[in-house]
Each structure stands twice: as C-alpha cells, then as structure tokens.
Amino acid sequence: MSADLGAPAHPIHGPEAPERTSVPAPRQPTSAAGLAAPAAVAHASDRGARIVAVAIALAWHVAIGLPAVLAARAELGAPAVVLGGWALVAVAGAVAGVRLLRGSPLPPWPLAGLLLAVDVAVFVAVGDRQLFTAANWVWGTLGWFFVLALWGRRVVGLIALLTTHAVIALIAVLGHGPDPADVARYVMYVYGTFSLPVAVFVGSAVIVSLARERAAVSAAGHAMAAERDAAERALRERRDRLTLVSSAAGRVLGELAAGQVDPDDPEVQRRCMLAAARLRRLIAESDDVPDPLLHELRAAADLAERNGLPIDLVTIGTPPPLPVEIRRRLADPLNGILADARGWARLTVVSGPDEVVVSLVTPDREGPEATGPPPGEHDDGQVEHLYERDGSIRWAQTQWRR
After folding, report:
1. Which CATH number characterizes residue 327's domain?
2. Membrane spanning segments where (predicted)?
3. Which of 60, 126, 212, 229 is deepest in the core (most CB within 10 A)?
C-alpha cells in the first residue's frame, strides 16, 4: 500500500489516521510506442508485397521462361547467349530477392544496368523466328526483375527502365523487317510488360501507405482512450485524497474552534503544519512544471519557512520523470519530519537518470513530539527509507532506483 499525500511513511504521533490509496498511478502511452505501431504494420504489409514480387519474378522466370528456351533451343539464333543470359538473370534475381526480403537490397542501378545489357543480348541472339515467342523470355520476365531492383523507390525509375526495355525491343523488331502484324504484337507485348509490373509496384506502395495511415489512426484512438481513462482515474484518486486531507484538516480546525485544544501546544501546531503541507502538496502535484518532485519539495520547504523554520534546499542533478505515486513515497516521510522540525533543516535532492535520493537533516530533541519512525532501513517496494537519530541530529532519507 502507498501512503497518501502528505502522510509520513512511518507515522509520527498525532491523532490523524494514516491516509491510504489503493489506485496506482496510471501509466501513459509514450510517443515512441505510438509511432512504432504504424511502422510495424507498414513493415509487415511491405514485407508481404516483397514476397509476392519475388515469387512472381522467380516463378515466371523458371516455370515459363526456361521450358520455352529449352523447347526452342534448336531454332534460336544463338542458344548459348539466350541460355547464358537466362542463367545470369536467375542468379542475379535470386540474390536480389533474398537481399530484398532481408531488408538490405542490392544497389539498384548496377543491377538495372546488368538487366538491360542482358536484354540487348537476348534480343540480338534470339533470332527472327522466336522474336515473339515465349523462348524470348525477356518479354515477360525482365520487367519483374526491374521491380525487384527498384523496390521502395519512386515509380519514375521503374517507368524509365521499362521504357528503355521497350525501345530495345522496338529496335530489334524494326531490325528484323517487321510487317503490320509484328507492330501490333509489339504494342501488345509492351502493354503487358508495362501494366502488370507497374500495377504491382504502385499497388504495393499504396497498400503500405494506407496500412500505415490506418494503424496511425487506430494507435491515436487507443492513445486518446488510454489518456482519457488515466485522466478519469487520476481525477477520482485526487478527489479521494482531497476528501481525506480535508477531513484531517477539518478535525484540527474543528477542535481549535471548539476550544478542545490549545493553539500554543507544540503537538497541535505540528498537526496544523502537517495538514497544511498535505494540502499544499495536493495542489503542487497537479502543477505542470518541468521538475514536479522538486516543485513539491519546494512547496513543503516554503511552508516550513513561512512558519519560521530556516531551511536550506540543495539540488544536484535533474530528476527523471516520475509517477505521482513514486514522488509521494519520496517526499511524504520527509514532510512529516519537517513538520516536527525545530531550529533549522537541510533538505538535499541528488538525482540521476536511474536514481533519486532525498535526505533531510534537522536537530534532534527530546519529547514525544519528536518521535519519528523506527531507526534503520525500511523498504517500501520501489522506494527505500532510512531513518537515524543520535540525540544531536535526526537524519532521514528516501531513495528510488529504476
């Protein structure tokens, strides 16, 4: 259980009942998490599209291009060049596909230059009779390897490569003395080599973009819902603590108004100071300041000074962002001792990225009003408490480690 606002971790003698809260401080979603979810969804969508593109390129090259080349080998102008080009593209495409799936694609333009060189060689070597057959495998296959080479880049580069491929094919068709039927078949082949690769290339990019946007909208909606729930819980907790703190202050004021206690009684003064410290801390917890812990400790120190207690507040380092519950466990035990201090006090805060230590030194004195927590070390879960007194000084420390 965690001590409520202003209540000491080890109670000091007084009629106030310990104040408790069982609702933990809500944990807000971080901006990094909000950005990671859309990126993860986009990465998964893009990986699926890469798998499809690699599968199409290699399957088409092996299942359609190779059987056609082997079947028409005797009719090719230079079968060794056509088969050698097929093997070179198969190896380059396999390496490019594996690297693409692993997220480290090959340099695009050297690979594109190799593919265009093979394109020229095959069109020259395939011969007139096999120019428009499946044995001329560059017609249907090369565009897919262009897609693998330029994946993730602008579509303008893919269109430029396909246009170069079409110009090479046109030169080859014109070089064989085409008739109108050859020109019509050329147009049909160029349309096929352009439309499907470009459609897959652009479609995959659009799907990835839509997936990222929808994931971002969903993550933002969940973050807003989480923030709303956390704000509602914090408001309920704050109202509960305000009720308890107001009740403690009301009892002291009621007793004073009814004449049941003496205002000059040190114990009554201590109870008033403690109630005021609790109310002041409750207000300080909701302030939007860079260092909430230091802000809350300064509020307690200011109250002690207004009551005539000279106090030094020394800070070393900057505290990391801490939940309200942790700040309360660090400050509350010292606030109780500070309310009982006489003469002078020294409050020290030493902070690092993974640790915050708050210590308080005051003069020790006899009497029941000076009774503090049991001497020694006490572990309150995430925060450790240490309290010592030797008849000369009282020393208390709270320490948080990540």
Report:
1. 3.30.565.10
2. 51-72, 78-101, 108-126, 132-151, 158-177, 189-211
3. 126
Domain that holds residue 44: 37-220
Same domain, 167 and 85: yes
Query: Which residues have CB under 8 Å from 132's CB, separation 6+?
Result: 139, 182, 185, 186, 189
Q: Choose one of 220, 239, 270: the last residue of a domain.
A: 220
Report yes or no on 357 lying in a domain: yes
Distance CA 321, CA 232 (A): 21
Tell me the per-residue pLDDT of 58-96, one tens digit each, with 9 for 90 and over: 999 999 999 999 999 999 999 999 999 999 999 999 999
Nearest in space to 363 (alpha carbons), one of 381, 345, 380: 345
Helices (H), 307-384: 324-339
pTM of the shown model: 0.51
In a domain, 216, yes or no: yes
- 194 and 73 in a common domain: yes
Confidence check: pLDDT of 27 > 80: no
* Tally of domains in the chain: 2
Tokens of 340: 């009982």
SS3 349: strand
Q: Which DSSP helix (H) or strand (E) runs through 21?
A: strand 20-21
